[in-house]
Amino acid sequence: MAAIDESFTWGDSLIHTTDPRVRLACAVMITVITALLRSPAPAVAALAGGAILVALAALPFGAVLRRLAMVNVFIVFLWLFLPFSTPGDELLRFGPLTATRQGIDLTLLITLKSNAIVLTLLSLMATIAVQDLGPAMQQLKVPRKLCHILLFTYRYIFVIHKEYLTMRRAMAARGFTPRTDRHTYRAFAWLVGMLLVKSWDRAERVHAAMRCRGFRGRFYTLTRFAATARDFIFLAGCAALAASILWLEIARRGAA
Amino acid sequence: MTHAVIELTDIDYAFPNRNKCLSGLEFHLHEGEKLGLFGPNGAGKTTMLHILMGLITPDRGEVRLFGRTMSDGHSFDEARLRIGFLFQHSDDQLFCPTVLDDVAFGPLNQGLGPDEARQRAAEALHQVGLDGFEDYVPYRLSGGEKKLVALATVLAMKPEVLVLDEPTTGLSPEAKDRLIAILKGLDMARLVVSHEPDFLAATTDTLIAMRNGRIEPGRLTPHTHTHVHEVGDIPHQH
């Protein structure tokens, strides 16, 4: 949408020029398999696969790191709690806290899987321009309601953020500085309430305007999708990656 | 007598938990007619426009568009494609990542193929004097440019009627003049809602007034109000 930073969609790399439907299908295939992994070895493979895809998409290195950092902020919290709260064999002891081997394994697995999924999505999904994402989902027979939820969430997050900034500026203009007191809490509660009301109204108006221009629940696009031989080779490559991750996982489970 | 393209008969509407907004409203717009509508805030102007576009359903009364009674939400679908409705706030109307996508949105919904839609979009942008704006981000344009893009999104659908809801809101005198010049070049029937007598005088032939949820009887001929001196619309000292 308008002002959400879509910098990853600009480019002419191998991935950017691949049919959006193929990218979407590959992204789903790889991330679903990755999400279901239980052993570290295939998770490492998935992470490597994600890194290769990001390299193929030639995404700006710094921007990718920033996105990864955002995800890993949550992962840090997992490292603070999970190793100590998972029952199992004692590995380390910090005063009254004991870290278990199972806890550390689990946290490591989550870390690997999350980063692998983020890298895969950055390279395959974030490179699809939003005007192509809707039609691509529709052509892959994703249920229409799901398409709408995804697209409109994406569009309105920005709208809501803008309303928030406008109101915060208006509050600041009247001398509001956030403090730890009742006045601040109440002001923020009103802000959030008003934000919901305004965003809802705005969404209604945008939807009305879309209906006036003949929108009946289906998106059309100016871009014509045409899968070429190269797209099928790419699809086959991703399928091979997904299959090897799956094979590693099955081999591990068999061994265990 | 020319055909009526929009007919509202005996319309009542009240917002939930509030007093009646429209009561016994009668309104007609005929082919080729250029009608200006004015009235105080809260008179029900926007509500009337939303009813005639089928965006809200009146509590009572009949909406006829192009000679056909609109019985339910679906009957509006086809008629809407023939009415170009310009919203008061362009930001509500423009939602695509590029100007081209936004202007082509309507034609694509009308069933045109990508190439024809692209062609239509280019024509519409040319009509409003925004050639070469195709790849711009609508959100980052100036207020005046946004309004013109919004008008182009509507013109690209080749409507038979234009409905403009306070099109001059927030526009500078220059942007208004540009809008007037474009509207003067269009000959389809139109309904313009505005608080500005001069804008109505420049873009419409007949004026009607709305007050307390109904159209007042009587029609006026709009006339310009010339300021006593040349620099009337520029700040100056006496």
List keywords for this structure.
heterodimer; A: 256 residues; mainly alpha; 2 domains; two-stranded antiparallel sheet; 8 helices; 2 strands; 71% helix; 4% strand; flat; B: 238 residues; alpha/beta; 6-stranded mixed β-sheet; 4-stranded antiparallel β-sheet; 10 strands; 32% helix; 24% strand; globular
Polypeptide structure, described:
The complex is a heterodimer of chains A (256) and B (238). Chain A has helices at residues 20-35, 40-57, 61-85, 101-124, 130-139, 144-173, 182-212, 229-255; strands spanning 90-94, 97-100. Chain A has eight helices and two strands. Helix content of chain A is 71%, strand content 4%. The termini of chain A are far apart. Chain A is mainly alpha-helical and 256 residues long. Chain A is flat, with a radius of gyration of 23 Å. A two-stranded antiparallel sheet of chain A has the order 1-2. Chain A folds into two domains: 7-128 and 227-255, no CATH class; 138-212, no CATH class. The model of chain A has no long low-confidence stretch (mean pLDDT 88). Chain B is α/β, with parallel strands linked by helices and 238 residues long. Chain B has a domain at 91-158. Chain B has eight helices and ten strands. Chain B has helices at residues 45-52, 73-80, 90-93, 99-109, 114-127, 143-155, 173-184, 197-203; strands at 4-14, 20-30, 34-38, 60-65, 68-69, 83-86, 161-165, 189-193, 206-211, 214-215. In chain B, the strands form two sheets. Chain B has a six-stranded mixed beta sheet, with helices on both faces. Chain B is globular, with a radius of gyration of 18 Å. In chain B, 43% of the residues are buried. The model of chain B has no long low-confidence stretch (mean pLDDT 89). The A-B interface holds A 1-3, 6, 129-131, 155, 202, 205-206, 208-216, 220-224 and B 50, 53, 55, 77, 80-81, 83, 85, 87, 89, 92-98, 100-101, 104-106, 108-110, 114, 117-118, 137-140, 153-154, 157.
